[in-house]
Structure prediction request, 742 residues.
Amino acid sequence: MILLYFAMYSIPNMAQNNSIAQKVDSLLQLMTLEEKVGQMNQYNGFWDVTGPVPENGNAAMKYEHLKKGWVGSMLNVTGVKNVRKLQQLVVEESRLGIPLLFGQDVIHGYKTLSPIPLAEAASWDMAAIEMSARIAAEEASAVGINWTFAPMVDISRDARWGRVMEGGGEDPYLGMHIARARVKGFQGDDLSKNNTIAACAKHFAGYGFVESGKEYNTVDIGTSTLYNTVLTPFKAAVDAGVKTIMNGFNVLNGVPVTGDFRLQREILKEKWGFDGFVISDWASIGELVPHGFAEDLAQAAEIAAKAGSDMDMESSAYVTQLVELVKTGRVNESLVDDAARRILTVKYELGLFDDPYRYCNEKREKEELNRKEHHAAALEMAKKSIVLLKNEGHLLPIKKDQPKIAVIGELANDNNSPLGSWRLSSDNNSAVTVLEGLKKFSGNITYARGPKIFDPNTNFLDEISPNLTDESGLSEAVALAKTSDIVLMVLGEHGFQSGEARSRTKLGLPGLQLKLLQEVYKVNKNVVLVLLNGRPLTLEWEAKNIPAILETWQLGSQAGNAIAAALFGEINPSGKLPMTFPRNVGQIPIYYNHFSTGRPTLEPNVFWSHYSDVQNEPLFPFGFGLSYTTFAYSDLQIDSSDQNNIKVEVTITNTGDWAGEEVVQLYIHDKVASIVRPVKELKGFQKINLAPKASQKVEFHLTEKELGFYNNAYEFVVEPGTFDIMVGTSSQSGLHGSFTLN
Ligand code: GLC
Prediction:
């Protein structure tokens, strides 16, 4: 096939010594306008849908366009057989045989699922996060995928927005490190290898700030938040060499980001020097019309092309409008050339011109999926992602000789929800359940489902069934709790209760779960709440009354094994919250790196920044997480003699009886600046492992990278003045010091 390919075409690939840029330019000269526009067109495959399928979307038209070379990429086509079929169609039947890119949302694994990204963020372990993305790339590339629409790097402070499960939480510094780790994991060191895939940092930009947490809603944020919070992980992804960026559905300060020239051309491509390409989100170019930003599809295509959206996902705007727009002079052909050049460059870098079937390897497809090494890594990642929120009276870990353990809650026996909502190509019902995991540790487990809380057949196209009110199962569960020594209440969200199109205004335990917990607690005080959820929940009653709470998110394929290991003390939980847990929805948006305000503290009257019905503090703060052991911080030293490299040192001691990992966190506060700065900003973290009674010095270095910020003119500045420092175990507690920058 490959010989035939070379024999038939004079695609400038033969001159191996030519640079990719030269090859791309030579190829562009051979291409018609229609073919260049074709590279800017992406269709959804005929096997899966992750967005509203347009009425006119049909296979026949897509096949026609594929044969004409009017398609640059397909999404949601997987499996070597399917990919090879479409690649062959294009390579052998279109005039120039330019290979397709095959993209999919490989968000946290393909077949083997690691924890959802928000859970992985809770590990604060960049090496583990990178490995998780690497494994996802190994499996995805084995089924023909050479491009993933990940990492999603949207910072968000609003748990009402269902997609917080997909990102790295509320903090730009942690988000920046996670973005780098994921890009590196997906793209590896050599994009031309058949086990590395192009990554895609998304959604550029601001999607995580949708008003009132409502999905696809408007975003209106100030320049300080845009420049110092929202853009930070995107810039990190670009600096890490991410090959593609996806824009988004939202308006940002009055301009839909898909049509935002300043964002995509001035900042991304010019100021940051991004040399990859921008793909629209699903039909977001066509959606410029309902946004009221374009009269019709033609103007939508014109605006988006000028604004720097290089590829059109599924709106057909480019493939139906752009040729005419160029011919009538409304769009300069140089813009089409630039977009096509960017897209073709990525295809060359992926090695697709050397071998269009590079990712169609039946042997790899047989061997790579669900490998035991992948599941072992997914288990390790899951263990690192678990956060211990409360452990009064050392109820945990469960004593091995605990005579009678009750396990209650439908989620304990649910092998689907732990996969989360972005499982796409993984096998439904393939997760290890909590119950299965527990039974490997103890023979004294008795299970009661309690009231049903979900319709198990719910899938990603459904609205989640309204919280069921049928109480059957409640009395049996309470009876079991009454006669048990310890009760594990496994409660939380259905796997499709968070994720895209899953915004919610109530964040308490859905349905009858709180009532079930309260009835159980009436008859047995030894209750452990095991949370399975895709976002922060409001848990005031639970936090006040339940002695032990373990946040286990949606931990993917190995969920039950990781949770059981933590509950029985095979591992010591080490996760830290990447996102604040509010006391109630009224506090949202709530986040640790807020500004001081002019009335930050308790005045002798009511005229200060507060609510009259709830305290300002969250239920659980950013960076919080307990351990089965305890850690003491001492001897904070700050050396600012080298003003270009402030050294901060602290000693941590494991003062308990368990070996354990601690995420040592460094926060700064730039006390006075030309724009107000947050009362705290994470600017360093290190995850260390300490044996009981052992101590370790940890050192941080603060340079202008950490001390500077973007002003409202988007200039990066470092200003003299006093900086407060806090080094501690969360954003709310640690040792304090300060230094002056001259
Ligand atoms: C979806 C999401 C985006 C995803 C794309 C393709 O609507 O917004 O994150 O990559 O469509 O599935």
Notes: The pocket of alpha-D-glucopyranose is lined by residues 50-51, 75, 105, 149, 202, 281-282, 500 (CB under 6 Å).
